[in-house]
Design brief:
Blueprint lengths: L3 E7 L3 E8 L4 E8 L5 H16 L6 E7 L2 H8 L5 E6 L5 H4 L24 E4 L2 E2 L5 E3 L3 H14 L4 E5 L8 H13 L5 E3 H4 L5 H31 L5 E5 L5 E3 H6 L7 H17 L3 E7 L4 E7 L2 E2 L1 E2 L2 E3 L11 E3 L3 E2 L1 E4 L5 E5 L6 E7 L18 H7 L17 H10 L1 H5 L3 H26 L8 E5 L3 H12 L3 E4 L6 H8 L3 E11 L5 H21 L8 E10 L6 E4 L10 H16 L8 E11 L22 E7 L3 E9 L8 E3 L2 E4 L4 E4 L3 E5 L5 E5 L1
Helix pairs in contact: 2-7, 4-5, 9-15, 10-13, 11-13, 13-14
Length: 694
C-alpha cells in the first residue's frame, strides 16, 4: 500500500519539495530553480529526483499536495482570460463605482485599481429580487441567451461571470441563467457569484465572481497539464491543492473556484509555522518566511494562524487599503512584501538613495552570483559578499556561486553611484532589506494591537534564517526558532495542513429579530457542503470538526467583527451567550464595549477541518549534549561589529542538547542560519535551532 506523500511549493525563484513516508519514518527534501515558463517542469523534475534519492517510484506515492502562485500572478500581471459579466439591470457600473471611496484623498492623479471586465463586456439583464429573496421582476431569459451569444460569439469571451443583485439571499435567477448558458455552451467556464461568494455586498461579491472567471481557464489548463504530466511518470495517487485559508482541497474544487487559491503558496508557510510552534511549545509566534522573491510575516497564536475573509489582490499601491481588487475569500492573514533573496538593489536617479526591491531577479536571470545572466546586485549577492553564504555549498554544492562576479557588479554599479566601497554597499543592502521587513512586521502587529517583544520568531525559507537574527534584533524579539529543513519548510506546510474549508452565508438581522430556523438551515447547508468537500480531499468523515462563527456589529456601524457561536443549532435562548461573545470580541479589538446599542449579524460562517498529519523531522535523533565541532571558520560581517570569525557547523551533524555561542553559521542544503554575537544556540529534541538573543 502506498503511504508516501510529497508537498510541492512553487515559488518565484525556487521550487521546494518535501517527501514524507510514515511507513519508513522517512523525510526527504529537495530544492531546484523554478521554471517560470512552465512551473510543472520543475515539479516533475523535482518529484522524480526526490523519489529517486529516497528509493521510491511514482507508483509508491499515496498523494501529492501542491501550492501555486499562478492565481495571484495572473491577477497582478493581468494575464487572465477575456471575461464577460451578466449583471442586474442598472448595476453595470458597480465594478467601477466600487465603494465610492478614494484610497488617497489628496492625490489629484489617483490611479484607480483597474477592473478585470471592461464596460463593453458587462451586460445588463432584466429581473430583480428584493433583499429578502422575493421576486420583484421575473428573469428575462431571452436576454440571458441573447447577451451570452453576443459576448461569446461576438466578443470572443473565454469565460462568463454572473452577478445578480441579492443572489446571496436566493440564487434562483443566477442558477436559471447558468442553465440557459450551459445549454448553449456546455464547456464555457462559468462562475456564479452566489456560489463563489454567497455573502452580502454586491460589489465585493461580483468582483470575486469576475476574478474567479478571469483566472479559471488558465488554472484549469495548468491543473489538467499537471495531472497529465504526473500520470506520464507513473503517479497513480491523488493530487490535492492548498487553499488560501490554509486547508487542502481536491482538484475539482480548485478548478471550480481557483480564486480561493490566490494565497495558496504563502498559506503553506503559515501552516508550517503553526505546526512548528506546537512542537516547540510556543503559543505566540511571528511566522517569518523569506524566499527568493518575497517575505511573508504572519501571527500564529495558540497553534493557529490568524485568518480573515476579505482580501485585496494586485494593489496599485503596496500596503494602501482600497487600492486593490476586493475579494471575498478566506485567507491566512499575513503581510507580504517584495523583500527576498532576488530583490534588486538600485540607486534612485532623483534622490541618489539606494532602494532594495520590490523588483526581483527571480529564477531567470536570478542574482548576479548565479551566473545565469543577472547583472544587477540582489540581496543574495550582498549576503555572499558579507560572508553569510558559502559559494561552494549553495544548494548543498549543487550550484556554485561566483563571488568575483558579485564584487564587480557592486563595485561598478551601486557602489560607484553612492561613492562607497563595494563592501559598504553590500552592508547597505542588508540594512535596507532588514529594516523594510522590520517596519512591515511592526505595522502588521500594531494594527492588531500586538507588541513584537511578546513573540518568538520562527524563521524559514531559503533566505529567512540568513536574515532572522538581524530582524529579531530590530524587533527586539528575544527568541528565534529555525527548523531543520528551513529552506523547504513551506513545502512541509502542505503535508501538515489539514483538509479544511470555510463556508459562508449571509442573513442580516438584529439578534432579537432573527429567524433562528433559517439560521439553522444555513448551517445545515454549509455542514453538508463542507463535509462533501473535505471527504473529496481525503478526510475521514468521523474526524471532521466544525467551528461556527458570525460576522456581527452594532447597528449603524460600517464593518463587522468575527464572533464565536455556542453551537450549530441556535435558538432565542442563546442570545445572551452570543451577546457576551460579541462583547468579548469587541473588547479585544477596540478596548471597550457599548452595551446599550443593538447588535446585528450579517454573515454566518462554518470552518470545517479534519486533522492534519503529524510529521516529526527530528524523531529518533539521539541526544548528545556538549558543543559540536565546526567544520570550518570564515569571517562574517555583522553591522556594528565588522568582520568576525564565525565557526561553520554542519546542520546534519547536530544532535539534541548540543549548545554553542554566536557568532556562528549553521549550513544545510537549502539554507544557512546566521547567528550573531551575544547569542546562545540550543538544539532541541526536534532538531530545531533555538536562538536566545542576549
Amino acid at each position: 500500500m502506498a503511504t508516501a506523500r510529497i508537498g510541492v511549493d512553487v515559488g518565484g525563484t525556487f521550487t521546494d519539495l518535501v517527501l514524507h513516508d510514515p511507513s519508513r519514518d522517512l523525510v526527504h527534501t529537495g530544492k531546484l530553480l523554478t521554471t517560470p515558463a512552465d512551473p510543472s517542469e520543475a515539479i516533475i523534475e523535482g518529484t522524480q529526483r526526490v523519489l529517486r534519492e529516497a528509493g521510491l517510484t511514482p507508483a509508491g506515492l499515496h498523494s501529492m499536495v501542491h501550492g501555486t502562485t499562478l492565481v495571484t500572478n495572473t491577477v497582478i500581471e493581468r494575464t487572465g482570460a477575456k471575461v464577460g459579466l451578466l449583471t442586474t439591470a442598472g448595476f453595470r457600473d458597480s465594478l467601477e463605482i466600487g465603494r465610492e471611496i478614494r484610497y488617497d484623498l489628496y492625490d489629484l492623479f489617483l490611479e484607480a485599481p483597474p477592473t478585470l471586465v471592461p464596460r463593453y463586456l458587462r451586460r445588463e439583464i432584466a429581473g430583480r429580487l428584493d433583499a429578502d429573496g422575493a421576486e420583484l421582476l421575473a428573469l428575462d431569459e431571452a436576454a440571458v441567451a441573447r447577451e451570452a451569444r453576443a459576448l461569446v460569439e461576438g466578443e470572443g469571451v473565454e469565460a462568463l461571470a454572473i452577478g445578480f443583485l441579492h443572489s446571496y439571499r436566493d440564487k434562483r435567477h443566477e442558477a436559471r441563467a447558468a442553465e440557459i448558458i450551459r445549454s448553449l455552451y456546455p464547456d464555457l467556464p462559468l462562475t456564479l457569484s452566489a456560489e463563489v461568494a454567497p455573502e452580502i455586498r454586491e460589489f465585493e461579491r461580483t468582483s470575486t465572481a469576475c476574478a474567479n472567471a478571469y483566472v479559471q481557464p488558465r488554472m484549469q489548463r495548468y491543473l489538467d497539464k499537471l495531472e497529465r504530466d504526473l500520470a506520464r511518470i507513473g503517479f497513480e495517487g491523488r493530487l490535492y491543492i492548498m487553499l488560501s485559508g490554509g486547508g487542502i482541497c481536491a482538484v475539482r474544487e480548485a478548478k471550480a473556484f481557483p480564486i480561493r487559491l490566490i494565497e495558496s503558496g504563502p498559506a503553506a508557510g503559515a501552516m508550517a509555522a503553526a505546526f512548528l510552534s506546537k512542537l516547540a511549545g510556543l503559543d505566540r509566534v511571528v511566522s517569518y518566511d523569506m524566499g527568493g522573491t518575497t517575505a511573508k510575516m504572519c501571527l500564529v497564536e495558540d497553534g493557529a494562524p490568524d485568518h480573515k475573509f476579505d482580501f485585496e489582490a494586485g494593489r496599485v499601491r503596496r500596503f494602501v487599503k482600497g487600492s486593490g481588487l476586493p475579494l471575498k475569500v478566506s485567507v491566512v492573514d499575513m503581510i507580504e512584501i517584495g523583500a527576498g533573496g532576488g530583490s534588486i538593489a538600485r540607486v534612485e536617479p532623483g534622490s541618489g538613495l539606494m532602494k532594495v526591491g520590490p523588483r526581483s531577479a527571480g529564477a531567470v536571470p536570478g542574482p548576479v552570483c548565479y551566473g545565469r545572466g543577472g547583472t544587477e546586485p540582489c540581496v543574495t549577492d550582498a549576503d555572499l559578499m558579507l560572508g553569510r553564504l558559502d559559494p561552494a555549498y549553495f544548494l548543498g554544492g549543487e550550484m556554485a556561486l561566483d563571488p568575483d562576479r558579485v564584487r564587480r557588479a557592486f563595485a561598478e554599479g551601486v557602489a560607484v553611484k553612492l561613492d562607497v566601497s563595494a563592501d559598504t554597499a553590500a552592508l547597505g543592502v542588508q540594512r535596507i532589506v532588514d529594516e523594510t521587513m522590520a517596519a512591515a512586521t511592526r505595522m502588521h502587529l500594531a494594527e492588531k494591537g500586538r507588541d513584537p517583544r511578546d513573540y518568538a520568531l520562527i524563521a524559514f525559507g531559503g533566505a529567512g534564517p540568513v536574515h532572522a537574527w538581524n530582524l529579531a534584533k530590530l524587533l527586539k524579539i528575544r527568541r528565534i526558532v529555525v527548523p531543520l529543513g528551513a529552506g523547504v519548510a513551506s513545502a512541509l506546510g502542505f503535508l501538515v495542513a489539514p483538509p479544511a474549508t470555510d463556508m459562508a452565508r449571509s442573513l442580516v438581522g438584529r439578534l432579537e429579530r432573527l429567524d433562528w430556523a433559517r439560521v439553522n438551515a444555513l448551517f445545515a447547508e454549509m455542514d453538508a457542503e463542507g463535509r462533501t468537500l473535505l471527504e473529496e480531499a481525503g478526510a475521514d468523515p468521523a474526524s471532521i470538526a466544525l467551528t461556527p462563527t458570525a460576522d456581527m456589529r452594532h447597528v449603524g456601524q460600517g464593518f463587522e467583527i468575527p464572533v464565536p457561536l455556542p453551537g450549530l443549532r441556535l435558538a432565542e435562548t442563546d442570545i445572551p451567550a452570543i451577546r457576551e461573545a460579541f462583547f468579548a470580541a469587541y473588547r479585544t479589538r477596540f478596548g471597550r464595549v457599548v452595551e446599550d446599542q443593538p447588535i446585528e449579524a450579517l454573515s454566518w460562517r462554518l470552518a470545517c477541518a479534519a486533522p492534519g498529519q503529524d510529521i516529526r523531522i527530528g524523531r529518533g535523533a539521539a541526544g548528545a549534549g556538549g558543543t559540536p565541532t565546526p567544520r570550518a571558520t570564515r569571517p562574517v560581517v555583522f553591522e556594528g561589529h565588522g568582520p568576525l570569525p564565525a565557526p561553520v557547523y554542519d546542520r546534519y551533524a547536530l544532535r539534541p542538547g548540543m549548545e554553542f555561542p554566536g557568532p556562528a553559521l549553521v549550513e544545510e542544503r537549502e539554507s544557512t542560519c546566521v547567528i550573531g554575537p551575544a547569542t546562545r544556540v540550543t538544539v532541541d529534541k526536534h532538531l530545531n535551532l533555538v536562538l536566545d538573543l542576549g
